[in-house]
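Dear colleagues,

I hope this message finds you well. In preparation for our joint manuscript, I am sending the D-alanine--D-alanine ligase (Pedobacter rhizosphaerae) sequence together with its predicted structure, so that both groups work from identical material. I would be grateful if you could confirm receipt.
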Amino acid sequence: MKKTIALLTGGTTGEWVVSVKSAATIAQNIDSDLYDVYKIMLNDKGWFYEPADSVKIEIDKNDFSLTIEGRKIKFDGVFIAIHGSPGEDGKLQGYFDMIGIPYTTCDALTSSITMNKGYTKAIVDGIDNLHVAKSVQIFKDGNYSVSQIKQDLKLPYFVKPNSGGSSIGMSKVKHTDDLEEALAKAFKEDTQILIEEFVSGREFSIGVFGAEGKINVLPTTEVIPANEFFDFEAKYTPGATEEITPGRMSDEELVRVQQVVTDVYKKLNCRGVVRIDYFLEHETGKFYFIEINTIPGQTATSFIPQQVAAMGLSLKTFYTRLMKETLG
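The corresponding structure tokens are as follows:
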């Protein structure tokens, strides 16, 4: 018996563009023998299904159902492909929990906590072999001192919106005179900001997913941006970044990294597929946690599809394993 699945795309932040591309990849690779898929767009104007041959059909939010030509369609599960709010920050997860529909991502609590970079770092700090860069977290209307930040942190540092994604609003500050401008840019995206000391190291990104009741670690991707850092342009412009999958690590580093990211997945109570970004510090090889994405990109150029291919899996098999684990 086929399951009826809603593939949720869009969102209410600047990341909706990426979300639409991710949903296109997912839709092309879901096993149509197992699942009937309805792509549902969520944006500021509403939640709706848009068939190719007719007008938009609004979702009934009371039970997340569709009525098409008098026939009511209810969903067995939801594949959430919305980056940013409300897909990645726990809001939709809370809604689906309340109406009793399973979904493919982390639960509401984990999703909302991991959207906040500062809170996430506080939770994972203490895991064996995991290090976090020294940082200061400030609030827009809070009582913070720019001169104190300059005293407490060593240059250069990254200034980033605490709950943003896709590196929107992020700056690398090399001179203390540029800090105020970087703060203003980040505060346009969020009311909380993380200012973090720069770690000189090689940057990697690694997918971790739950399937068949166990935690699986994908091959890692080494990220070598042509830009100063891995910003929005570097992330979404083909060729702007050199990406090596699997990334170059020694056997010892690989074993250590796999253990650390498995521990992070457990400690944050993750489910579905997540992506963890980290540095291996140049001099020491220490693992420095950057951030976790609980709804990582699935576009043609995204890391997870690259890593799935490097593992020798088809995306169809990968998504089937994910959905069987999370949707039952």
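For the figure legend, we might mention the following. The chain has ten helices and 17 strands. Residues 113-131+200-327 form a domain with the D-amino Acid Aminotransferase; Chain A, domain 1 fold (CATH 3.30.470.20).

With kind regards,
E.M.
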